[in-house]
Structure of Integral membrane protein:
Amino acid sequence: MSPATPEPAPVAAPEPRNSGAALELLVHGVGGTTPHEMLDDPRTVRVTGDGTAAVYRRADDLRAEAEPDRFRDGPVPEAYCWSNLTSGNGTRALWLLLLPFMVVNLAHWMRPSATGHARSARLYGVLVRLVALTLTVLLTAAACEVALDLAAWQCAGAAACTEGRSWLGFLAVSEGGWWSQPGRRLTVAAVVPTALVALLWYLSHRTWSAYEAQRPPRGEDEHDDRPALGRPGFWYGRRLVARLRAAHTAAGLLTVAAAVAGAAARHDRGTGDTLRTALGWSVEGAIAAGAVVVVVVVCRRGRSERRLDGRLDRALVTRLPGSAAALLLLSALYASWSRPDWRSSGALPGDTAFSVLILGQGTLILLLAAVALRLHRRDPGPRTALGGLAGPAVAVLACALGGVMTGGVAQRVADWLDGPGTPGTGDGPIAGPPLLLSWQASAIPVLLILLLVPSLFLIARTALAARRLAPVVEAEYAGEAADRVRTRRIAGVRAAAALTDAAPVLVGLLAAATLLLGAAGVLGTWATGTVPAEAFDGAPAVLDGAAEACQALGSWLVGLGFILFVTWGRRAYRDASARRTIGILWDVGTFWPRAAHPFAPPCYAERAVPDLAWRMASWTGRTGGRLVISGHSQGSVLAAAAVWQLPHTTRRRVALLTYGSPLERLYGRWFPAYFGAEPLGGLHREVHCWRNLWRRTDPIGGPVRLPAEHGKPEVDHPPLRDPVVYGRTHDHPLPEPILGHADYQADPAFARERAALLDRLPPALPLPVPRQRSQGPDDTEGPAPHGSSGRSSG
């Protein structure tokens, strides 16, 4: 195999000798694209950046600033490619396993506007961070359930289960080895959840170093009242992520320690051994004290955005996980103490642990909803999703995803270990997973049936809307021969694009149903103490059969859902079409910094936004020229965020062109505190000029709804016609496609609006003439050595 060709170093563009340069900085959207496609040229050169994210130019445009006559009719195009920040090889599909963490992190940013209500905003952040902490505990508890309870406690303690499983031989009670005592089996099995916590810590630390440790272009705050996205520390949350990483790592290790020590302590309290009982209480008390410290650390400090905070709480970051690891080691030693009379039977008390977790999550989410309603009522936004309850609703979905993954793994492992038996029914060698997981699985078919009704309603409403839009479409193409099939297709695409606006209703219904069914699962477990199918024994045959069907179908659906997480994730990173289909949801989730959960997938914007801000500031400062940053789809969000980060002197030389933009339609409705009407209006006033292009057939982009004010025209262009031509013409002999969210640059309006933006920018600034240093006969031109003034000494 030949050695890999090293990647060529970026080629720096030369210093311009003419100050009249104009630049268009293109930023692509979801799904990514190549610089060759963005620049419409197979020959491109990387100007600056690396293999993860970089700025490219056409090879012929590398010295464009020195050749201004070539670009009198338009700007020099540059392409910023950031797709490798969110996609890559198939191993990144494992990031999809972090989906619950990503979703709960979204809930933090969905807070309603809190102008003048800082205390309520802080309380909102504390509650979301606590919900995120419960998800870490839930995932670790699921690993403990599989490794400690199902494998080490139940299966290794039953000869019928260990038969034919050589990998459990050294733990099997039937072998009578040193490791066969229950406490020692639990100690060995604790390696699995401990390794999971260590892996999450490693991934969080590694991705921070690779993706998010990029400083913004300025470190000072211009004004205290600047929008959040314009503050110096918004895209640099190093201190908070490190604190949360330490706290969540400690929480995971303490969860494992509690599972190991708790089983041994319960046995010792039943034997009457005073020494062991006191030691057990001491270990459990130390674990409880550590849990209190973790909660205090999570609640104490939130994000620091008004200044660039580069400090680290090094003592906390190292001592908290280290103390938790020491407690885990102490628990393992305590559980490994010889107890010859100890026998494992039944299952570990997982129902109690999972019930407490679910009740805690439900309580926190109800408190979060109360705070969100209070904030929304004080500053209501007419287009805010779910009346300010978007954050609590999304937090419910995060907990539901965690439950599906937890139940899926436990159910499938139990089914595998139980052989031909059915876990939880007593007809196999093991008792099976906690009953609560069976009740939750039984609720999934009910939830799907409940969602079927609004889904059918939306389908019917879309069909009726398409029929009503037919005459509107034909009126827009007046003068052309009507084609019923063509009209119906255009109207259908427009009606389907409007389904995006119905997402809040579906999310709200799903969250409410999930919350109620989760509560029903906890009550069912406590009330019956048996699996759902057996709880209805003696009931009418129809009800009994329905309960049995729901329990069986739900169990399979939970396992299937977990498998689909990995399958869809891998396909999304291997198949470009699948990536574009679900990419918008993933890219929205990873756009935001990790403010609630440190184990969420990395935030690509903490690399992309500083990249764009640095490029705009450095190019305008070096050339004095005009710049239009041109963003499509998610790229428009990155472009707006980067413009917010620019100093005032740079912003006045920059124009913003957005197209297919979800700035208001998605971000403004779901994240009102950061992209609502007030923040977007402030951006409109701060940037020199801004134009937004959109189509009615676009399911993602839309208008930003900013009127003309302060002498600036309206931001939104009238909706572009799509398709550009209705039927066949001499110029378009073949039918034109309905573009929807794609190919905005193909519309003639794009070039016109870009030229108009450049014309509205102030003239290029004159650059100072560089001073020529005197040269002696032995002098050569070149940069002055480090530490010299650059002047000749002769």
About this structure: The longest strand covers residues 626-632. Residues 22-82+604-760 form a domain with the Rossmann fold fold (CATH 3.40.50.1820). The chain is about 55% helix and 5% strand. Residues 625 and 764 are 5 Å apart (CA to CA).
